[in-house]
Each structure stands twice: as C-alpha cells, then as structure tokens.
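Cross-posting from the modeling subforum.

Setting up a comparison between two proteins and wanted a second pair of eyes on the formatting. Protein 1 (sequence, then structure tokens):
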Amino acid sequence: MKLITWNCQGAFRKKAEFILAREPDILVIQECEHPNKLIFNSNTERPKDFLWFGENKNKGLGIFSYSDFTFQLTDNHNTDIKLVAPILVTNGKTDFILFAIWANNRKDPQGQYIEQVWKAVNYYEHLLNNKNLILTGDFNSNKIWDKKHRVGNHSTVVESLLRKEIYSVYHKYFEQKQGEEKNPTFFLQRNLTKPYHIDYCFASNEMYAKVKNVEVGTFDNWIEYSDHTPLIVDFDLGDEC
C-alpha cells in the first residue's frame, strides 16, 4: 500500500496527474478544493472513494482512494478540531484507522497549528490504542518552533504518541532526530533557502513494521506545483492488501 500526503497549494484538479504518476493507493491532499470544483481533465484517473473536509471551498482536506480501500468517518469526529479527520479504512482483507491532517484553525485562540494535533491526540486517545493506526498530513509544525508554544507544542505531541508506540515514520526510517531533518517538505515562498520539515506520517508499532520504503519529494521535482513536496510511504501489507 502506497500512502502519500501532499499539500498541493490549491487547484488540485490541475495537478492531480503529477502526483498520480507516483501510483498511490491512498492520497491525503491539503489545500484541496471542494468536490464541486474538482473537475479533472479527461485523462486523469478518478478516485474510487473520496472524503473532503473544510469551510473554504477553495482549500480543504481531501482523502482519495485509488485502490480497493474504502473510507468511513468515525462516529466521534470532532469538527471543532481543524482539520483532523479520523477515518476507518478497509478493503475487506485489512482495516486500519487513518487520521488525515491539515493542522490549520485560524479561529482557535489557543493555537492555529500544532495545537490542533495536540487536541486531537487527547480527544481521540482511545482510538490511538488501535494496533493498526496511521496519522499523516501537514502538521504545520517542527520542534524548532517549540519555544513559541507553552502547551501542546511539537515535542509534546511526538512524546505523547511515542508513549503509545506510535512513531514518526520518516524519523525512524532515516534515523534522524526531530528538528534535525535532512529532507525538507516545505519551502516558504517557494524559496530553496527557506526549507522546513512540517509534513509527517506517524504509524503504530504494528504498522511501522510493515514499512518498506519512505521518500520525500525534491525541490526540483515539485516546486513548480507547490511550496510543499510529497511524503511517500510504502507499506507491505502482504496478503492483506
């Protein structure tokens, strides 16, 4: 199973073919337009299942299936935490909980970005006990900004997940420390000299054991389309997929 998260910086309908060339099974797309605006060209593959969340019809959170996986939003979805969507993913052989994330809530006085993930980690604590679990998306956060946040900063979120044996796939796979990433996922103002790592995939111990490859897109290949590069994770589900 290939899972890709990518903040497309809007107008996904015009960029879908480029990320679909990577043959994802599941796509999590931030800054994706509302389904009513998703008019793909005739040559672009259509998703087999699709969910969308947001208030701005030009920029929301889209989750796409290009395989036999189907999506069902969990009953306890808290719409006050934006944008974090807990989704049951299944294909009849395997199922897992996917938290699709675009941490961005300008209306929350307690914090717009990582604070949303912190709230989700606490609100959905019971779901985090699921053995088959993935959290992925644009967290708009990095350890280097911890000093700007007193409660629910980046390191606190990472530590809370670690206590439940939920790991950052990128950091564990490449043996890199939080805040010392060698592969950025975001270039502020599309500027090569302003790189940051703010997109993540976290997986439970059982799911991480199935990771076979992790890749971060490069500036040269993706800057034409977005200020973010995709984070691509391959899971070997064997006969389950």
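Protein 2 (same layout):
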Amino acid sequence: MTLYELMNEYAIANPSPPEQESRTPELGMSLSLLHSSLIECYLESEEQGGTPRLTASPDDIEPSHLSHFIVAFLPFNAVTEKSEINHVLFDVYSFFDWLNKKGVSHGLANTDISQLVKQLSSKQERCLKLSQLLDNESGRIMSDPPEIQNTLNDIFLVEKIDGYFALLKGRRQENIVRLKLPPDALPLIKLNDCLDLTLGDTSEKWVVLEAGQVYPKIQ
C-alpha cells in the first residue's frame, strides 16, 4: 500500500475532525500536515482528482523527512503553540505505532521516534533564526539586484564551512556551490544543515535570491 492509502486507512480507523483547509481533509489535521510535508520532500506522488497524493512506499520515509516536518514545516504552517505541536506529534507517533502493530515495514522502524522528536525540537529555534537571517540576506540582495547569469533552486546540504563561506551541494546539482554567509549566520549554520534556497550566479559569486526552510539532515 502507498503512504497515502495507509494514512487514509489509519484516519478511518482513528477518526478526527477533517482539516477543511487541507488538500487532504480526509486525513485529519496532523496526517494532512505530514502528507504535505512529505510531498515537499519530493517523495513520490501523483495527481488524483486534482490533488497530489503520496504514492511512495512507507519504506521510503527517512529520519530527515521527520526533521523537515518538525523543524521546518510545522512553524511555516502556523503550528507554533506547544499544545498544538504536541497534539500533532502525538498523532504522527501514533500513526507509526499503528504501522508497527500491523507489521507494516517503514523507514523509521529502527528509529526511536520519541527520542528523535526531542532531538529535533531542540534544533528548531536555531534553524528558524538561520532561515530568517538568510531571508534578510535575500532581501538585501534584491533591494539592489545584481545582474544574474544563472539561478539554482534546490535543497542544499552544507558539506563544509570554510571561514565566511559554506560549501553547498544541491540535491539536483553535481557541482559544489561556494556561498558567502552573512556574519550573523556564521554561529548558527552547521554541517549537514539542509537549506531551501534560490541562488543567483553573478559570474563573480553566488548570492541568495530567495530563502526558505532550514532543517538538519539526520543520518
């Protein structure tokens, strides 16, 4: 079964109020949020009745997908109150526990999800601050836009930090990008951070044109 089918089966067995603003209201709020987050992570999906639905296998889920969900996706979707976050995380934990009880193989089967959630929650503030600083940098660049030769839009992994520069590897890029960081971002950025960026090549250097979510890659 696909991830969407399993989520829908769980939602039928454990009904909760439908999330009317979601594109998958039948899944309830928590699983609708997780479903949308996984699609943002490029898990396999297809349009069904005008709505993207996950066709990926539960084995395709990785700890880094949970990192994206907790650290980046929830705050960007206005899930910021501690009680609401706890409710969503409990529902997500319950879904994976349900998969375990059904004997359904999945990519987090060997992960201590409770411990991982605690670990990721402690990184949320740093990543949100870094995201804001990178967004500020893009605003500074776009206030007086340079001539751009080429652009890259990708999720970039921080592979090395070299002085004021971060060496970034995009998911869809073969070459390493060397990006100069704003000084106040230097204490916050870490190896294996994932940065959702649109970068511009001025022929002399790469600059941030647009900045989105930041979250740590979990090995």
